[in-house]
Amino acid sequence: MDSLNYTVDYLNTILRAGDSLTVQWADFGLPVEDNLALSFVHGIDSDRGSWSTGKGRIRRGLAARDFTVYTRNAFMKLVPGQSYQNTQYVVSGRLVDVEQRAKQYVSQTFQNVVDAGDIAGRVITLWRQDNASDSDNIYTAVVGNSTCTNGVLICTGSTTPQQQHLPLYAIECGNISYIGFNAYFFSPLDSVDHTKQPWICDGMDVSIRPSWTMLGFFPTVNECTAVIDEISEYAYYSDSELFCNPPTAQPTL
């Protein structure tokens, strides 16, 4: 039939009572050897430690959401200062090869829980702009042992969690900012359940959203704490490249 414009009378002349209509799948796709595939290698969960509270699981399939679910859940109980590590692999390639290739990575999957201080990080230093007035109050963080010639060294921390260290944040809400350990400094409380609302800048229009920059992990038990407490509100964070290496002259037109 080369057209769909057939009348009922015409169709009745070619389809008789008792006739059967058979519909078959026409496979016009690529041959199996030409198809591509994606494989997720999540391990067999044999490396669970004392931190684990139950065997992990894979969840996949349909859900009452606008996406197809695929997730790997690990169950554990962590205390402040601990971090969970999980190394998995995604393997792509030809459909006929990907299963065998994926099996090669099963033994290389890895999960573990580490305590603060278990992983040595790099030094990270906090600097205040030299000769700045109190109204300037501009700071930056530098990774490594580099010296910031345009700044005064304030405090030394680490790029990884350490004992008696906390993450130090630079937070901006509109035209005001904060540097300190309180990630919820600008966050209002919900009027019903009194939970923090970190996506809102307290007292500002809802169109103004906060932005966070984590500067590193800094001590909470030495002179750093006092200095950082003094910094607090109205302290501004600057990119270290611009902060430490300002232009030697103003551009001219």
Explain what the structure shows.
- The protein is mainly beta.
- Helix content is 12%, strand content 35%.
- It has four helices and 14 strands.
- The chain has helices at 8-14, 95-103, 223-231, 240-244; strands at 36-41, 52-61, 69-76, 83-87, 89-94, 110-114, 123-129, 138-143, 151-158, 165-173, 176-180, 211-219, 232-233, 236-237.
- The strands form five sheets. A four-stranded mixed β-sheet has the order 9-7-8-14. The chain has a four-stranded antiparallel β-sheet with strand order 12-10-11-13. Strands 1-5 form a two-stranded antiparallel sheet.
- The termini are far apart.
- The mean pLDDT is 84.
List the keywords.
single chain; 253 residues; mainly beta; four-stranded mixed β-sheet
Distance between the termini: 75 Å
Structural category: mainly beta
Give the H and E element order: HEEEEEHEEEEEEEHEEH
- How many strands appear in the DSSP assignment? 14
Percent of residues in β-strands: 25-35%
Fraction in helix: 10-25%
Average pLDDT reading:
84
| Biggest beta sheet attributes | 4 strands, mixed
The shape, in one word, is: elongated
The side-by-side strand order for the widest beta sheet comes to 9-7-8-14
Indicate the radius of gyration in whole angstroms: 30 Å
The number of helical segments is 4
Name the poorly predicted regions. none
